[in-house]
Design a protein that fits this description.
Shape: elongated
Number of domains: 2
Strand content: 15-25%
Distance between the termini: 56 Å
Mean pLDDT: 83
Oligomer: single chain
Length: 321
């Protein structure tokens, strides 16, 4: 197999800072038996000493893919995953296999290696296929048990809201879920917008002065979100995933922040990696998109369990949203 790979090596692009990309490309080229042949560098800061073509535009990258039959992409710096995430996803969608190489750590510390460099495959395209059954089983089991346990609490909250705020205790709003499909999200109503336009386009009501003490309590404790366990049980949402947003903001953020639209590769979540890192409420949308995509690219059932445990711990010291 090694001889066959050496005879017909797979063309690859190397993405990262110019100096690091050139060093890794040279190292891989010195070991043809690894079966990978770098044919170009994708770098924003070339210094003119590179021995391989430097591709700086999308058109140049696309041309290199076609002319060389590129099938592998080597990301050789930690910053590449966030700074070049849209490009990596586009390359993965075109059929390339994306690898993350550690340019400074020896391969003996890793199970996989390429020309002596530690490496691992990145899943930059759609959500991992194996996420389906195990993730859904966890969602149904946990949401079903929690709904049974907190049912009396939900009824109590609904009764207090009905007495203090009047009719209409359940708030229904269109949100965007997996693959851009809309669904109806459920919450306890803690604010009554002036009209539908305000409901669809107002970013946050965290500092709303018209909110009663009980509504503020529901928001600070996140009890207003518990009705979304029903969304999870129905399959509109997952326990863990990117938080769903309204169509108005999805369209706005998708145009402004690279990688935002890619969050919709996986079912929206009640909580997520971004939220357990403090990214909720009026925080950076760019940071949220980066954390959400990192969660999807590295999904595992164990990661879901850890995020749920961290969320449960955070609820003991609520800060609101």
């Amino acid at each position: 197999r090694a001889d066959a790979l050496a005879a017909r090596p797979r063309a690859a692009l190397v993405i990262g800072p110019a100096a690091t990309a050139q060093r890794v490309a040279a190292g891989v080229l010195r070991h043809p038996r690894c079966g990978v042949r770098p044919v170009g560098l994708v770098a924003a800061d070339p210094d003119g000493t590179e021995t391989l073509p430097v591709l700086s535009t999308g058109e140049e990258v696309e041309r290199a893919l076609i002319q060389n039959g590129v099938v592998d992409v080597l990301a050789v710096h930690p910053s590449v995953r966030s700074e070049r995430a849209p490009l990596l996803r586009a390359l993965a969608a075109s059929g390339c296999t994306v690898w993350e190489l550690d340019a400074d750590s020896p391969a003996y510390a890793s199970r996989d290696q390429l020309a002596g460099y530690a490496c691992r495959r990145l899943h930059m395209g759609a959500a991992p296929r194996h996420a389906g059954f195990g993730k859904r089983a966890l969602d149904v089991t946990v949401s079903g048990v929690l709904l049974a346990l907190v049912g009396p609490l939900l009824l109590l909250c609904a009764a207090v809201l009905r007495l203090t705020e009047g009719p209409g205790v359940v708030f229904r709003q269109e949100r965007i879920g997996k693959d851009g499909r809309p669904f109806t999200l459920l919450k306890f109503r803690t604010h009554r917008p002036v009209d539908e336009h305000e409901s669809a386009t107002r970013w946050s009501v965290a500092n709303e002065v018209r909110m009663s003490w009980f509504c503020r309590f529901l928001r600070r404790s996140s009890l207003d979100e518990l009705l979304q366990l029903w969304n999870v049980l129905l399959g509109d949402m997952s326990l863990v995933g990117p938080r769903p947003e309204r169509p108005y903001f999805v369209a706005k953020f998708s145009q402004t922040y690279p990688g935002y639209a890619a969050r919709h590769r996986m079912r929206a979540g009640l909580t997520g990696l971004a939220q357990v890192h403090g990214l909720r409420g009026d925080t950076s949308i760019e940071d949220r998109a980066r954390f959400d995509n990192a969660y999807i690219d590295n999904w595992s059932l164990w990661q879901d369990v850890c995020i749920l445990l961290r969320t449960a711990a955070a609820l003991l010291r609520p800060t609101g949203s």
